[in-house]
Amino acid sequence: MSPDHAQSFVRASLSVMVWVLLATLALSSAFAWQVQAADPSPDAQSSPGAAPSPQTPASPPQTSQAPASQARKMQCPQPANPRRLHTGCKDEHLDWKETFSQDYFGLREKMRQLGITPTLSYSGALQSNVTGKTHQILGYAGQLTGALNVDFEKLLKIKGMSFYIGGSWGTGDSLSGGLNNLFPVNSFYAPSYYLGEMYLQQTLLKQSLTVIGGRIAAANTFATLPVFANYINYGINPTPYPLGYNDITFFAPPTGTEWGAQTTYNVTPVVQVAAGMFNTNLNAANGQNHGTDWTLQQGNKGALVVAQVSYFPHGIVADQGKQGLYTVGVISNNNSFPTLPNKETQSNGYVGAFILGQETVYQPDGPNTPRGLTVWGSWAYNAKPLVSPIPAFWAAGASYQGLIRSRKEDIASLGWIYGRVSDSIPGTTAEQVLELNYRWQPRSFLAITPDFQYIWNPGGHSAPGVTVLGIQASLTF
After folding, report:
1. Which three-class secondary structure state does DSSP give residue 207?
2. CA 367, CA 305: separation in Å to the nearest integer?
3. Half-sphere exposure of 429 toward its Cβ, with a 13 Å CA cutoff?
4. How many domains does the chain have?
5. What is the CATH number of the domain that holds 448?
6. What is the pTM of this model?
């Protein structure tokens, strides 16, 4: 079988699989409406994130009765911070202690009781290269991110429905622009203001099934791990960078979003499937008109399709108090892309795959305690290096929360990133990055992270390595 025929077969198989999954979830949705209409149980009447009644003490859930939605919760370590927030976390209940402004004299809690939850955060990174270039470059980039989640179940009595809208304002400059490397040393550089995601969300089957549609981004759902948020380099936080670098329509805002729809279904407490289809307008992906270019087609065609299966080995609350997540996914886009040897020529789309996982392997204080060591790994592959600048990617690392016993919220992280450059770009091999950082968290809403990065072969070229030192600060309002 020729490579072209093989790619056509894989793409067709992927499309069939995604359509079957979407159809299955749609049928589940229709069935769920009937079940919910006839279900008078308290579980069916309670709203997401609602606290137990004061008159009825909450009892520990039993393993056999754990809800399927239990598996999603580990993906939401900071639901009060709207920056690059996983789509499954928009309705998660957040404690006002996680925010700098707290409850603000009861106003925020009154708004939440009505179904309105605003969130706001600011993050910035000050970095400089100390070796590897003829001169030292000092760069700062920051982002103010805001979002509003409206729970229509509380506000309008529409069961399971909510609306989400976000936006950002970026300032500063790009240090990586002066270093000419592939993996940006931070993920904050997006100057100007942009409208972010904007979509309707519907949960069904007691929150096991979630359907969203509107202006959305694949990277806020697919190919991500909670542990990635511990890093500063854009190569791994929030997703493996080549997935968006090879296809900008995958990236999360800023700068842009796409029209799309996706479904997530918790099959069991430990197995979750997700699939999504997204438009491929490059102008929208690049944030034209500050994220308000909503045209479906401007020279583009086809769709970006992503599907994944996730396994949470410790998703049931009666397990050993550890946290694990393993994901296998496929990605395809049948739009046309410029070829790398000659940008004037076009070639049809690509297919790719990704595998990633994390596991808490050591807890010195015993089960169900925060201190411990988490190891992780990631792999991504694109089957068409003719149009993909980084067709092969590997990454691995470890994070230790509470390395200093008296600092149980602090996290020390070590990560390694490897990206092989396409053979269609002459004179290149691969770029590698080593990152070491320590996130000091004096309060739940404030994190300060000194960071060290070393870059081998910047841009994949045979060039002196670059050492980058910096500090990142994040504040959740």
Report:
1. coil
2. 39
3. 7
4. 1
5. 2.40.160.180
6. 0.84
